[in-house]
Amino acid sequence: MKKLFLTFIAASTLLAACQSNSGGSSADSAATAKEDSIAAAKVLENPVDSANAPVLKFAVESYNFGKVDAGKKVEYEYEFTNTGKSPLVIQNATASCGCTVPAWPKKPILPGEGGKIKVSFDSANKSGMQDKLITITGNTIPAQTVVHLVGEVTGDASAPAAPGAPAPGTDHGDHKH
């Protein structure tokens, strides 16, 4: 348990430092990341019973981005509120595909307060209907909550052709098959 706890602190510090914005000094960012990690670790070392557990409540659990051309990026912020009775700590957020990257708050979210999980989906090399699952792991009961990013990628999923180049699959007779 001690190793898990120390690993979480180290990972949180590194992730928070990587996620910090470019404003302010890196020393300030590192100090803030360390403070957030310590606060999160303190919350996690005191498990809560189900009656007092934090509750992760999303305003939207499934976002439909509609139709986008292949190669476009889609970004969405899932807004949430901690409707439980104790501080919420999001330990991790993962997506079902490497093309989808979530970013989440690293500091504890107090009861009644909210936050945002920003998700970026890169539609390059994708086509057709998409349903990306984002799994959020925290000190909630149950520990994991899933939200969806859905929509349709249209057009050619491969890299766009250079201006003036023939469309993919066009045969101009100047090469062998």
Automatic annotation (TrEMBL):
Checking InterPro entries in the record gives:
DUF1573, Ig-like_fold
Q: Which Pfam families match?
A: DUF1573
Which keywords, in A-to-Z order, does the entry hold?
Answer: Signal
Region Disordered: start-end pairs: 157-177
Is tRNA-binding included in the keywords of this UniProt record? Answer: no
Gene3D superfamilies, alphabetically?
A: Immunoglobulins
Specify the signal sequence span: 1-27
- Ranges in coiled-coil conformation: none
List, as start-end ranges, the regions of compositional bias called Low complexity: 159-169
Superkingdom of the source? Bacteria
Q: What is this protein called?
A: DUF1573 domain-containing protein
Q: What is the lineage of its organism?
A: Bacteria, Pseudomonadati, Bacteroidota, Sphingobacteriia, Sphingobacteriales
